[in-house]
Design brief:
By secondary structure, this protein is an alpha/beta fold. It is 38% helix and 23% strand. The chain has ten helices and seven strands. A seven-stranded mixed beta sheet has the order 3-2-1-4-5-7-6. Strand 2 (67-71), helix 4 (74-83) and strand 3 (90-94) form a beta-alpha-beta unit. Helix 6 runs antiparallel to helix 10. The chain is globular, with a radius of gyration of 18 Å. The two termini are 28 Å apart.
Length: 255
């Protein structure tokens, strides 16, 4: 699939507010695991590439780390800058995975949350290797919905399959451990999975849906039909007026 045709650097521009409010963060267990199994330390120079509204940066900053956040989409970058206003541990940079505004060998750890499949991988991997020092690690993270966990997740997946713009194309992108070894020309690749969840009322579930780039935009019949169906799914599965979205947070640690 030609990702350029999907305009990855611009496709979230009209979804920033929902992305900031309703997209999942990342489990705290990630920090403990990296602390035990990589060279992560308190003075670690971390670069968050494709940092968006700062979801992954926030995890590291909350645990005391400084993060250089690299994001090409101005609306997402400005939303993050507003969120982290006056926080000296957040350093905002206008750049992309294919042109990272950091010096050679200047970074101890590269982290990517949810964005790697949008990169031009050959150029991005070259840039990663350029800025990363010889003892550094690359950490790629996805919050993948656990689509077989329970009835809500199965129904939500069918909703996306039926109504989501280019959802099937995006869903088909999966690298796996073997693919990561090939892309990064490294046999030192580890895959780790953590459980994660979000709990929503209906407005929250609707906002979570609308934060996705493949959700049709308001004002179309497809959008209207999708929201009607979402309401039916919510009513079917809600307990105490809440539903639970469950994830498998998949992490690749590359050395």
């Amino acid at each position: 699939m030609d990702l350029k045709s999907l305009k990855p650097k611009a496709r979230f521009s009209n979804r920033v507010e929902n992305y900031l409010k309703y997209r999942p963060g990342y489990p705290d267990e990630i920090i403990a695991y990296l602390g035990k199994n990589t060279t992560l330390h308190k003075n670690c120079v971390i670069a968050d590439i494709g940092s968006g509204t700062g979801k992954l940066s926030e995890l590291f900053i909350r645990h005391g780390y400084q993060v250089h956040a690299v994001e090409p989409n101005s609306k997402m970058r400005h939303a993050a800058e507003k969120f982290f206003k006056n926080n000296k541990k957040y350093i905002s940079l206008n750049g992309s995975a294919e042109a990272i505004p950091l010096a050679d060998n200047s970074v101890d750890m590269i982290v990517v949350g949810q964005a790697f499949h949008w990169f031009e991988t050959e150029s991005a991997v070259k840039e990663f290797r350029r800025i990363l020092n010889k003892n550094g690690f690359i950490i790629l993270i996805w919050n993948n919905r656990d689509i077989i966990a329970h009835g809500l997740m199965r129904d939500y997946e069918r909703l996306l399959q039926q109504y989501g713009n280019d959802y099937k194309q995006i869903r088909s992108i999966y690298y796996g451990t073997r693919g990561m070894k090939r892309l990064f020309k490294s046999e030192d690749v580890e895959r780790v999975v953590f459980d994660y969840k979000q709990v929503f009322d209906f407005p929250g579930l609707k906002g979570r849906l609308e934060s996705s780039s493949y959700c049709p935009l308001p004002g179309t019949d497809t959008y209207n039909n999708m929201i009607i169906k979402l309401g039916e799914i919510f009513n079917k599965h809600a307990e105490d007026n809440k539903v639970k979205i469950t994830y498998k947070t998949e992490i690749y640690i590359i050395h």
